[in-house]
Design brief:
CATH architecture: 3-Layer(aba) Sandwich
Shape: globular
Number of strands: 7
Helix content: 25-40%
Distance between the termini: 44 Å
Order of helices and strands: EHEHEHEHEHEHHHE
CATH class: Alpha Beta
Number of helices: 8
Radius of gyration: 17 Å
CATH superfamily: NAD(P)-binding Rossmann-like Domain
Number of domains: 1
Strand order of the largest sheet: 3-2-1-4-5-6-7
Largest sheet: 7 strands, parallel
Strand content: 5-15%
Length: 255
């Protein structure tokens, strides 16, 4: 039985733990027939260890998306391994501790700039580094956390995600002629490593217990992973600049 990613070559960032959405996207991509390559920073050995739990062995490349040298060498490293790419998964976000946890009005610009660079501008940086590899077009998929609203303790990661969402739309506009699509999955809260950096994660995720139309499980990243794989596939050939909510429907309710 063939999978929806048969013959696809996919680069996936952000595989840190089995609890990460990126891990489940990687696992499902392999199960659906894709060849994948992973990137990691700052601890590639951590990703290499987790990658052993995937259905098939995969290479892990060191990639700091804020490092120009790393971005410049990425094309050759991926070409040597896979020959080219059909898809890219951007699962990267970071904000210094003083940019979260109720410190919004007192955060320094340096910390805000770091959050924006790593969490939003990197979507453009990564896409452009991979663009020469997507000779026949491709699909770029990123992960956001609904930036329409403020979230307790999320603080400057909120504006960073808003910037990510706008960046995705501009990439969609500018790369459409090259048949490169760019879309985002807006997932509900998942208890991953990223969640541990949000001081009020439990309070934030409790919103889903009260308001989500569909039951939401913070320990189940697979639904979001399925969304990523669907957008990587040819089943969304004319969808770009879109944000697909995999959040139990919470985005649709007001209270």
């Amino acid at each position: 039985m063939s999978g929806i990613l048969d013959g696809k070559r996919i680069l996936i960032t952000g595989v840190l733990m089995e609890s990460s959405i990126a891990f489940h996207a990687a696992k499902l991509a392999q199960e659906q027939g894709a060849e994948i390559i992973l990137t990691a920073f700052p601890r590639p050995t951590l990703t290499e260890r987790v990658a052993k739990k995937l259905p098939k062995p995969t290479k892990v490349l060191e990639l700091d998306v804020t490092n120009a040298e790393h971005l410049e060498r990425l094309e050759k490293e991926v070409r040597d391994e896979l020959g080219g790419l059909d898809g890219v998964v951007h699962s990267i976000g970071f904000a210094p501790q003083d940019a979260m946890g109720g410190n919004f009005l007192n955060t320094s610009f340096e910390s805000v700039a770091t959050a924006m660079h790593v969490s939003a501008f990197s979507l453009k940086s990564l896409t452009m580094a991979c663009l020469p590899l997507m000779e026949n077009g491709g699909s770029v998929v990123g992960l956001t956390f609904d930036a329409q609203y403020t979230w307790t303790g999320y603080d400057w990661m909120g504006p960073a995600k808003a910037a990510l969402e706008a960046t995705s739309r501009y990439i969609a506009r500018d790369l459409g002629k090259q048949n490169v699509r760019c879309n985002l999955i807006s997932a509900g809260p998942i208890g991953s490593m990223a969640a541990k950096s949000i001081p009020s994660f439990n309070e934030l995720s409790d919103t889903w217990n009260h308001l989500s139309p569909l039951e939401w499980n913070t320990s189940d990243p697979e639904p979001a992973g399925r969304g990523v794989v669907a957008l990587l596939s040819d089943w969304f050939p004319k969808t770009t600049g879109e944000i697909v909510h995999v959040d139990g429907g919470l985005h649709a309710v007001g209270g």
